[in-house]
From TrEMBL:
PANTHER family: BTB DOMAIN-CONTAINING PROTEIN (PTHR47086:SF4). Pfam families: ZSWIM3_N. This is ZSWIM3 N-terminal domain-containing protein. Residues 10-76 form the ZSWIM3 N-terminal domain.
Length: 90
């Protein structure tokens, strides 16, 4: 994908993480939106999971998900933060 492009879609391929970042920044400026990295998996973490994908070590992430700061699904933690413990007072 050309770095000069200011539009992209799901499934587009980039030769480097810097190229992706530049494309996202141009898109944000042109469309007046802001994205944040919602989920990601580093190359090191992906290699520990013994993935079948061929990963280039010069890339920063094996997987990355961007979300708009005003939309998307609400984040729900997977653990309970509060636990009720029964107490007996005599």
């Amino acid at each position: 994908m050309a770095v000069a492009s200011d539009s992209f879609s799901v499934g587009d391929l980039f030769t480097s993480f810097d190229e992706l970042q530049q494309c996202v920044e141009k898109y944000q400026k042109k469309r007046s939106v802001q994205f944040y990295i919602r989920d990601s998996r580093s190359i090191e973490a992906a290699l520990k999971r013994k993935t079948k994908k061929q990963l280039r070590p010069d890339l920063k992430y094996a997987e990355i998900t961007y979300r708009c700061i005003h939309g998307g699904k609400k984040y729900k933690p997977t653990i309970q933060l509060e636990r009720t413990v029964p107490v007996n007072l005599n």
